[in-house]
Amino acid sequence: MTMTDWTGAIGVTLLLVAFFLNLTGKIGKESFAYLFLNVLGAGIACLASVLLRYWPFIILEGCWTLVSAVGLAALLRKRL
Question: Residues 57-66: pLDDT tens digits?
Fold first, then answer.
């Protein structure tokens, strides 16, 4: 596997872990852990898509990262 493959696999794994933990009721969709895993996973997957120059997933993962980051920022503002 190439470094780009590993990067993409790590990003997707983080997204799937967040999804699995949410589905099993371990973390809520508005929890810090869920939002953080989504920001990190989508950001890393977006980086892999950039390295591959695959625009559909650059847009998808970039939007996913942005939406998750907005949710995370809102959560952190609430806590302050």
Answer: 999 999 999 9
For residue 27, give Cα distances in angstroms to 12, 24, 54.
18, 8, 31
Condensed to tens digits (0 to 9), the pLDDT of residues 3-37 reads 999 999 999 999 999 999 999 999 999 999 999 99
Contact 72, 35 (CB under 8 A): yes
How large is the angle between the packed helices 32-52 and 55-79, nearest 10 degrees?
A: 160
Residue 3 DSSP class? H
CA separation for the pair 15, 49 (Å, rounded): 15
Dihedral sign computed on CA atoms, order 47, 50, 54, 59: positive
Task: Note whether 34 and 24 are within 8 A (CB).
Answer: no
Taking the whole predicted model, whether its pTM rises above 0.85 is answered as yes
